[in-house]
Write a structure and sequence with these properties.
Layout lengths: L20 H8 L3 H8 L7 H14 L5 H7 L5 E6 L7 H14 L3 E6 L4 H13 L4 E4 L10 H5 L3 E5 L9 E5 L1 H14 L5 E5 L5 H16 L9 E3 L4 H13 L6 E4 L2 H12 L6 E5 L13 E4 L2 H16 L8 E4 L2 E3 L11
Parallel strand pairs: 1-2, 1-3, 3-4, 4-5, 5-11, 6-7, 6-8, 8-9, 9-10
Antiparallel strand pairs: 10-12
Helix pairs in contact: 1-2, 1-3, 5-12, 8-9, 10-11
């Protein structure tokens, strides 16, 4: 009779598809409490007993039921992150930072994109709440967040990022959009520019308005009267931004420099300027990939997206740990990164 090759032992059928701690205890010949101690890394188990329990766990393919464990504590060990657009490079490091803080607290991150649609934001937020997330980090698309009041009252920790909540009092972590834009425009003014264009995002967005306000403040500080045709706010799609750029540069009295309100605007403006026969001074809000390698390099007002996410997540878990602090507005500084001749040529 031919000899058959031995195969690794598999869990017996009586254990079903998902073995339990009772199954592990029966196989190892120990009590249920002993298995619990080994699974949860608690003291009080001899090395030999721990070895037998671990062998039983490996043989059966047992996995600890974290869902049952956290539900007993009234938590799901999950948090939600609602972003504007998952494809936007700005949100990559922010999301990663939130995830790292969540992981350090033993929580799972679930994220989604509102696509800058207030109705979609509300639908997504409430769907996450229905799945009993412990907390939410929200980059708001809308300006009325009263729909969240019952969820917050029920104990869902909530922190807003990049933009404040609308019509409710809640924690928010922001970059200094006003100060950053003022610094960027002042940099252009210091190089002799007086006719400076501003191309930004939609006027209902908090960051767009704050950066426009910073632009106006820098111009006013320099005694420059801003012409209406120097400012353009709207959708950041390439066609709209390209048209705004070309209009400003082809006017009878064209601008000599442009300040871009965010990274998506910057990318389109850089492409337009690259095809012009003469250089145009330029500064953008938000850094972009390869900005330092372009010729000339692009000067930017940089914000720390990772620090925004980290600060918001830490604030969220502080709430979950029972802190009773009043809602706080945390504003992180920006920095001007000067790159080569990116802000040149000087006016005149």
């Amino acid at each position: 009779m031919a000899e058959t090759a031995s195969r690794p032992e598999r869990p017996e059928s009586r254990y079903g598809n998902r073995p339990t701690m009772k199954d592990v205890a029966a196989r190892a010949g120990v009590g249920l409490k002993t298995v619990s101690r080994v699974v949860n890394g608690e003291p009080g188990v001899t090395p030999d007993t721990e070895r037998r329990v671990q062998e039983a766990i490996d043989a059966l393919g047992f996995r600890r039921n974290d869902s049952a464990r956290v539900l007993r504590k009234g938590r799901t060990a999950s948090i939600g992150l609602v972003l504007e657009d998952l494809a936007d490079p700005f949100y990559g490091p922010l999301s990663r930072a939130v995830e790292e803080v969540a992981r350090a607290h033993g929580a799972l991150l679930i994220n989604g994109s509102s696509a800058e649609d207030p109705d979609r934001e509300q639908e997504l937020v409430l769907a996450l709440c229905a799945r009993r997330v412990d907390g939410l980090v929200v980059i708001p698309a809308g300006d009325d967040h009263r729909y969240l009041e019952p969820e917050i009252a029920a104990g869902v920790a909530t922190v807003f990022v990049d933009r404040p909540a609308g019509k409710i009092d809640a924690d928010v972590v922001l970059s200094d959009s006003f100060g950053g834009a003022r610094d960027g425009v002042a940099h252009l003014i210091a190089h002799g520019h007086r006719r400076i264009g501003f191309i930004g995002d939609q006027p209902r967005i908090h960051t767009a308005i704050e950066r426009l306000r910073g632009y106006r403040a820098a111009m006013e500080d320099a005694g420059i009267v801003v012409e209406e045709e120097w400012m353009s706010l709207g959708a950041t799609d390439p066609d709209r931004v390209e048209q705004a750029t070309r209009t400003m540069l082809s006017a009878p009295d064209p601008v000599t420099a442009i300040f871009a309100g965010n990274n998506r605007v910057t990318v389109t403006v850089v492409r337009v300027l690259a095809g012009l026969p003469r250089p145009v001074a330029f500064v953008g809000f938000d850094d972009i990939e390869l900005a330092d390698l372009l010729q000339p390099g692009v000067t930017v007002v940089a914000q720390d997206a990772a620090q925004l996410g980290r600060t918001a997540a830490e604030r969220l878990f502080r709430q979950l740990d029972g802190a009773s602090d009043a809602p706080e507005r945390i504003e992180l500084p920006t920095r001007l990164i000067k790159r080569g001749s990116g802000e040149l040529p000087p006016a005149g």
